[in-house]
Amino acid sequence: MTVTDTTTSTHEQLGLAHGPAWANRFALAPLTNTQSRADGTLSEDEYRWLVARAEGGFGLTMTCATFVSPEGQAWAGQLGISDDRHLPGLTRLADGIRAAGSVSSVQLHHGGRRGNPDVTGVASVAPWADPDRGTVALSTAEVQRAVADFVAGAVRAQRAGFDGVEVHGAHGYLICQFLDGRHNDRTDGYGGSLEDRARMLFEVLRGIREATGPDFQVGVRLTPQGNGIVLDEGVIVAGWVLDSDLVDYVDMSLWDAFATVGEGEDLLIDQFTRLPRGRTRLGVAGRIRTAEQAQWCLQQGADFVDLGRAAIVHHDFPGRATDPAFAMADLPVTREHLRGERVGEDFIDYLDAGWPDFVA
User: Model-level pTM?
Assistant: First the structure.
């Protein structure tokens, strides 16, 4: 990979249409970590993990996927924002991130058919019924209540002092399920055509923008393809959102920011960086593990990059990346290394069980 001279550096400030500028172009990806308390309230490990990344220089420090509805909780140890009981911990977290010099965001999430009945005590819900999974189809009124839950979560985040929220519309969770062209054939305006399948997403974004203040940042994470989304439709939906002026940024979870499309040499990232975006910023995520790779993404036209694995291994990746040759340490890394990076024991166990060759 070769990076040529470019006018935009990963360490340049990033201004957005609403709210505070980010100190640089590095964002902490919203990473599942299973280290919150059973009721969704903030734990000490979760606080230390996130504040450490803010102290490490990330321009944006974002929480893990945070459930907006009790039935939308997808795993044990997930952070919650569905009830006012979550506010004290969230307020402490927002204060800690701000004191460390980073902009703060909560990722708003509903698991839909990927909700966990063993954790929630109720059946999972989705745009369509799936008896084999015990999943119940949402009624039209229940879809609208889920929209309201996302909006209420954003209002709570604002009350807690966060600078913004990111709506999770990716990875096969509820909003992504509505976009699924294979299964979502609802006839109530929330399924069938792509425009109708995208209706819930835009109702959530519009509702949050209308219910929050003029300095509150709103972002959305989208999946380009997979989970019933084909690339052409993924590009269309991203284009609609970029053009809507409802969000400050679109966070494209590409899985691999350096992938090509089909058998050709056309780059996946280019499908999105070439879209008109007006005032909206565009971020990308996927296997970005060196300073050079991060800079390359900006050279291709992205406004910022999300770091996942690299942020786990190095809480201070942005500071280290002032060296253009800096690269993430080789995997696997030891438990001792992760503890030194303020990764909690539950998170380490989750990585060890689910991420092959991550923990030595």
Answer: 0.97
Ordered by start, the domain boundaries in the chain are 26-328
Do residues 104 and 163 touch, judged by C-beta distance below 8 A?
Answer: yes
The whole-angstrom separation of Cα 332 and Cα 168 is 29
Residues 6 or more apart whose Cβ sits within 8 Å of residue 83 = 40, 70
CB 321 within 8 A of CB 313: no
Query: ω before 332 within 30° of 0 (cis)?
Result: yes
Q: How far is it, in rounded angstroms, from Cα 304 to Cα 318?
A: 12
pLDDT tens, 228-251? Answer: 999 999 999 999 999 999 999 999
pLDDT digits (tens, 9 = 90+) for 307-319: 999 999 999 999 9
Is 47 considered catalytic here?
A: no
Element containing residue 335 per DSSP (H, E) = helix 335-340
26-328 CATH choice from 3.40.605.10, 3.30.70.100, 3.20.20.70, 3.40.50.300 = 3.20.20.70
Of 47, 173, 190, 350, which one is the catalytic site residue?
173
